[in-house]
Amino acid sequence: MEISTQETQFKGSDGQALDDFLAYPKDQEKHPGVIVIHEIWGLNDQIRGVAKRIAGEGFVTVAPQLFTRYKHVLTERNIESAMRRIWSIPPSKRNDQETIKKAMEGMTENERKVVELLFSQRQKLQETMVKDLLACKDFLNSFERVKKDVLGVTGFCMGGGLAFQLATIWPFKATVVFYGSNPTPLESIANISGELMCLYAGEDEGINAGIPIAVEALLKHKKSFEIKVYKGAQHAFFNETRPSYNEEAAKDAWERLKSFFKRHLV
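RESULT FIELD:
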């Protein structure tokens, strides 16, 4: 299906203009809408590519740049540099504030600013991103080419956790989580009203530690969900620009995502 694309803006939760990428079929019909939430790298060409692929299947997609407020600091280059420092820390210590603080002593000013925003102030950033995503949902829902309230959401890594969180706040009809963390509080899973699919990498210890309690909560509250764990795949297996890309897992996940949205966004 032929698509049109635009670099546009929407009003964030406080009225600030935030950047986004919009993609939609060229026909004049109304289509379901899907929010595509980026990884920790921000809105880049890889995420734009995902948004275009989903749009080509008959959906209106919007991929917001959740880092617009911090665009002079949270550039992809700065994030890459800072994350190399973080990855040098043992996985079990990456959420320890004292360990992070010590690692920051040897960082450049830009690297320190990135780590402060993405790690030290993560809770505050998370809350802002959730509010902005709800504003993005309103923007998508009001777009003339979208079937009102027939919305889905998907996200990757950081974006996967945000997608999971959004599903507990607004009644998205379909949510696809790629290796994302559980919503907080966990009991908010009780609020999910739409269909849920979670796709995980087999070699992703930190994220996968949360799967059992998520499943327990989903079963407790009688939610409709699907879970797939790709044995041998690493975190971010869907991103073809990263060393962890796994072609077999990515192809299967893509087919599952397409089928899921086509079944439930009607």
